[in-house]
Q: What sequence folds into this?
């Protein structure tokens, strides 16, 4: 397998210095086309148990070692503080939540809580699993849940995760294994929020407040061993795990910030799992896996300003972008055009009747002409290096908009400047701004209220009807009615072309030959769901 | 160069007329040496070629450097299997012609590189000369200022300045100049410290030359050869530094290109599309290569 | 001499204080870090609340007084982003940074001095051309490119070293070589040009006439006289490495040094961490520069410090 002639090029480097660039035949294979684009969710390997959280006794004890490469060092190992994917990659294996999502269907099921019910519009009652212990021996009980809730919502704690649990007001223990969680208004998505909040041990957390962010103790399938900052985190199987000991014994999680190095480490056999693989490299790695993800690159339109206030202009911008070509050429099929909404089938509120604007440059030109917006000049703000191929996507879209006669001036700005513009409010928003949306609560509320409600933090679009529906849906406890409201909002936002809808990206992973694992829609990396074949 | 420095090292040659005469003689000598020395000539030709190509980009470039073609993205160079003869050096991640982008990118890279070397170099050398020559309190103050600037994180400075005045080629030059003068000051001052004790400097002082004259007429020529070398080295470094700024969104804006930015943008594809990073990496040494051969003569 | 040293120490304190003040002002000029710490979906109320909780809504001079008072006691506060004392975070990374930088500068010096001398002895010879060209390659190759090539050749294909990480010499070799390439090229150039100057001076003739061996003359006279720019540049390279300009190498090889930490701190506007980092870097710069001035005096007795 000599696909890449590293030595040849190293020699070439020396040669070119002496000889002028001659026609040295470098035997590099052209980047070949991607395999057939994914048509539907890959069916999972038959091995994993169907009822995820229920105990699956494993005959032999845990064995073997898996090395996982992540993009950067966790900022902290306090599970309730940061909003940080690297932290989650570690703590998802150490800590657990009251409720879990099924790895395939993403349906909410029991976790540390065995069952739950809504007592009144603002009170939810949870029956806890008995006999669960934290890694340090502390018992898991109602006190731990109450403590965890109070800790994360304490303003003095300054948690970055606050927006995930925004509606939580209080919690109280009914008895040792029964807890009531109280919200500050009816909150239909409380269960979704609780699949997010990790439970910490009250005694240990209080007594080791200083050290806790560096020495996590949870109830999960893996126990923390050491954290050498910037280099690795080591975990070991928790043989007394209530759900049965996991199959893999040792876990090493390594931050490798450089994409190309992660790939090299995978090829050299130093790591077993790499997240966020660039599609071009799928055929280079020993094994790959992908799943339609939650990442939606999109372009915000400042719909309050100038020509962009005209719906025809906004629609023209949507017709002008060839989403299919972007998905096929730029992402080699590891992306699909978004269905005219920033939601997937997995999100509550997804409207199956709304479809993407087709690619139709003629129609775009016609609409622009109709609106008297030919030769329109628009500024497109973007960033670089935050999301997969973000800068390329921005430049490609700008190129396509230019084709229909819109004069697009791209401005790539530094991350904090980009954030300032995104949150500057509708009055100061730039004409167009590239962003990417990732709704992990899997409920339309988060997306629609942030992006399209006139009071939304990132919104540059206002429509009283959308505002009203979003506000009402937030407290509507009738599931069916609530879903209909969202369908309506999605339809309006699409018809009004409130933004430029782009793509929905797949999560692509590179795996070593010996690792068996099916990725999850919510992007969590759970080692307990993995097996080693050798 | 050797004759220049040799001359200045001799205390008796301090008469102005002779210096002018020597200047012309030296220039002629350099040209004569150049013609004789094919390698040095090659160096000069490289510089001229690069500058000319960049200057006449619109005439030389085979394609529009901003024209995208997604279907043709990551086409390898023409002579490699799968290559396309229309794209001699292949295409980049958006299907743009790499050769054309290198040619156009040269404008930005050379402008930035040469301007920064000129600005940072002059300022740094001046500080170093003064600091090393006067010594004492002056040296302390100037060198401590240099230390402050050295310890100050360059990226933070760039971020601050660009946040305030916005990203553009001119502003990159400002930022890199502010970040780049310290090495000149340090080197100059180090040599000057020992130079000021040399007999010819003392002699100049004795016959009543003023400080400025001593510094620029007698000391500076002695510094020429290490400083010229340093210029070469800095030029290469600055071209790359521009890349990292542009990559962070602090510099050149798309669809424009610069050599450094091409490397930064293409770096993800290094094992799939080596031409994305390898070719833009080549012209950046060429001005440096050329100018290094020059002082050999 | 003692007086000089005392004066230098006082100046050093001034430098460290000066850098800290400037950094404080500059970081506040680019805005508070609160936005960077909240999820994209956070609301304006959450932003204001958080801003208040961190105290970024106080007047600047109050914030500065607060910072200065604690900094004097060696307390830079907790990193906003990592929630751990900032100075500890920086100090934790020092061993890895020092190891990498010192090994790299050692490789660079050990390689460049012989190469530079050889080139200067026979100007315009083939050997000279090769040295010049080789060292220029070292200067001009993008560090990222070189690092990646070394990984692909020696770690992936040959398997001699590890691609990335920290621990044994097999982890250290590739990043150290990558980091050494640029200083090695630069120092070779300076050695060559300084030696060229020295070799044509009159005393060389005198020395040869006295019948001293060529090797002795080159090392004891020429090299020593040419040493000042060489030492300056080598020390400069080391200073820059220790000041955190190892970011690219750290990133490519996932090396846990503090360059990357500093960059992340800057990107996130993590004020306490930036302050702590700059404080440590300023100390290193100051100490190294005092050392350099003493080396000057040792090399060239004419250099005096009054």
A:
């Amino acid at each position: 397998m000599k696909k890449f002639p590293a030595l040849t090029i190293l020699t070439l480097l020396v040669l070119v210095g002496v000889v002028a660039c001659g026609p040295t035949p470098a035997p590099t294979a052209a980047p070949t086309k991607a395999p057939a684009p994914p048509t539907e969710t890959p069916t999972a390997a038959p091995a994993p148990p169907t009822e995820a959280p229920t105990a699956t006794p494993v005959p032999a004890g845990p064995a073997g070692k898996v090395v996982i490469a992540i993009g950067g060092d966790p900022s902290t190992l306090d599970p309730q503080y940061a909003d940080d994917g690297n932290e989650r990659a570690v703590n998802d294996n150490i800590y657990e939540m009251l409720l879990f999502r099924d790895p395939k269907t993403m349906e909410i099921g029991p976790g540390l809580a065995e069952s739950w019910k809504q007592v009144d519009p603002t009170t939810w009652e949870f029956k806890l699993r008995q006999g669960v212990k934290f890694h340090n021996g502390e018992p898991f009980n109602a006190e731990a849940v109450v403590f965890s809730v109070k800790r994360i919502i304490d303003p003095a704690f300054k948690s970055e995760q606050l927006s995930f649990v925004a509606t939580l007001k209080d919690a109280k223990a009914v008895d040792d294994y029964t807890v009531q969680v109280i919200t500050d208004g009816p909150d239909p998505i409380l269960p979704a929020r609780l699949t997010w909040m990790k439970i910490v041990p009250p005694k240990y957390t209080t007594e080791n407040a200083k050290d806790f962010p560096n020495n996590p103790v949870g109830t999960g399938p893996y126990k923390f061993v050491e954290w050498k900052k910037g280099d690795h985190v080591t975990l070991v199987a928790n043989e007394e795990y209530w759900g049965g000991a996991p199959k893999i014994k040792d876990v090493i999680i390594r931050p490798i910030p450089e994409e190309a190095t992660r790939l090299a480490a995978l090829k050299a056999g130093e790591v077993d799992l790499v997240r966020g693989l660039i599609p071009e490299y799928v055929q280079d790695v020993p094994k790959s896996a992908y799943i339609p993800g939650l990442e939606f690159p999109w372009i915000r339109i400042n719909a309050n300003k100038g020509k962009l206030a005209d719906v025809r202009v906004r629609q023209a911008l949507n017709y002008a972008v060839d989403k299919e070509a972007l998905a096929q050429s730029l992402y080699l099929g590891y992306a699909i055009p978004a269905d005219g909404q920033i939601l997937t089938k997995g999100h509550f509120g997804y409207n199956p009747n709304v479809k993407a604007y087709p690619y139709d440059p003629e129609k775009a030109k016609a609409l622009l002409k109709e609106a008297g917006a030919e030769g329109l000049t628009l500024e497109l703000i973007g960033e670089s290096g935050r999301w997969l191929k973000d800068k390329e996507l921005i430049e490609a879209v700008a190129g396509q908009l230019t084709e229909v006669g819109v004069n697009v001036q791209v401005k790539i700005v530094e991350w904090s400047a980009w954030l300032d513009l995104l949150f500057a409010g509708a009055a100061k928003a730039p004409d167009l701004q590239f962003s990417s949306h990732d709704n992990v609560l899997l409920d339309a509320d988060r997306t629609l209220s942030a992006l399209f409600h006139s009071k939304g933090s990132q919104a540059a679009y206002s429509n009283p009807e959308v505002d009203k529906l979003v506000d009402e849906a937030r407290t509507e406890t009738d599931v069916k009615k609530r879903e209909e409201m969202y369908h309506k909002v999605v339809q309006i936002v699409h018809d009004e072309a409130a933004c430029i809808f782009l793509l929905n990206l797949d999560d692509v992973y590179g795996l070593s030959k010996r690792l068996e694992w099916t990725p999850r829609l919510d992007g969590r990396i759970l080692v307990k769901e993995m097996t080693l074949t050798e | 160069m050797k004759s220049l420095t040799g001359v200045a090292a001799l205390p008796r040659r301090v008469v102005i007329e002779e210096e002018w005469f020597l200047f012309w003689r030296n220039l002629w000598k350099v040209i004569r040496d150049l013609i004789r020395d094919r390698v040095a000539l090659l160096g000069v030709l490289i510089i001229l070629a690069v500058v000319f190509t960049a200057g006449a980009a619109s005439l030389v470039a085979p394609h529009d450097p901003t024209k995208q073609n997604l279907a043709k993205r990551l086409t390898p160079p023409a002579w490699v299997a799968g290559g396309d003869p229309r794209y001699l050096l292949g295409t980049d991640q958006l299907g743009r012609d790499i050769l054309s982008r290198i040619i156009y990118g040269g404008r930005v890279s050379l402008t930035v590189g040469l301007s920064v070397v000129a600005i940072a170099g002059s300022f740094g050398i001046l500080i170093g000369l003064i600091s090393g020559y006067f010594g004492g309190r002056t040296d302390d103050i100037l060198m401590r200022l240099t230390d402050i600037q050295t310890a100050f994180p360059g990226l933070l400075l760039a971020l601050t300045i660009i946040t305030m005045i916005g990203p553009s080629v001119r502003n990159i030059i400002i930022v890199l100049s502010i970040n780049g003068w310290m090495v000149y000051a340090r080197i100059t001052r180090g040599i000057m410290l020992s130079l000021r004790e040399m007999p010819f400097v003392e002699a100049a002082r004795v016959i009543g030359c003023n400080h400025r004259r001593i510094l620029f007429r007698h000391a500076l020529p002695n510094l020429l050869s290490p400083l010229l070398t340093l210029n070469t080295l800095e030029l290469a470094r600055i071209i790359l530094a521009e890349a990292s700024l542009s990559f962070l969104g602090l510099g050149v804006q798309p669809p424009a290109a610069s050599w450094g930015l091409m490397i930064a943008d293409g770096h993800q594809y290094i094992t799939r599309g080596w031409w994305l990073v390898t070719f833009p990496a080549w012209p950046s040494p060429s001005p440096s290569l050329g100018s290094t051969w020059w002082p050999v003569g | 001499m003692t007086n000089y040293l005392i004066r230098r120490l006082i100046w050093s304190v001034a430098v460290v204080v000066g850098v800290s003040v400037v950094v404080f002002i500059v970081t506040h000029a680019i805005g508070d870090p609160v936005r960077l710490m909240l999820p994209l979906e956070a609301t304006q109320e959450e932003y204001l609340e958080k801003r208040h909780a961190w105290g970024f809504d106080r007047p600047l001079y109050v914030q500065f007084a607060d910072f200065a008072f604690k900094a004097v006691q060696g307390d830079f506060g907790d990193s906003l982003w990592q929630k751990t004392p900032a100075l500890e975070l920086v100090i934790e990374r020092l061993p890895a940074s020092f190891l990498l930088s010192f090994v790299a500068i050692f490789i660079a010096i050990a390689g460049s001095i012989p190469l530079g001398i050889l080139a200067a002895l026979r100007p315009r010879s083939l050997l000279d051309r090769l040295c010049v060209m080789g060292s220029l390659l070292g200067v001009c190759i993008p560090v990222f490119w070189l690092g990646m090539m070394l990984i692909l050749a020696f770690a992936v294909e040959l398997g001699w070293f590890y691609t990335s990480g920290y621990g044994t010499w097999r982890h250290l070799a590739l990043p150290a070589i990558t980091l050494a390439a640029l200083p090695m090229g630069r120092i070779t150039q300076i050695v060559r040009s300084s030696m060229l100057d020295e070799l044509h001076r009159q005393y060389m003739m005198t020395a040869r006439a006295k019948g001293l061996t060529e090797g002795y003359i080159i090392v004891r006279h020429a090299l020593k006289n040419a040493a000042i720019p060489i030492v300056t540049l080598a020390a400069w390279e080391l200073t820059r490495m220790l000041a955190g300009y190892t970011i690219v190498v750290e990133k490519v090889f996932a090396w846990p040094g503090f360059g990357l930490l500093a960059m992340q701190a800057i990107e996130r506007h993590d004020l306490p961490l930036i302050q702590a980092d700059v404080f440590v870097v300023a100390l290193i710069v100051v100490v190294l520069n005092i050392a350099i001035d003493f080396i000057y005096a040792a090399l060239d007795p004419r250099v005096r410090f009054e």
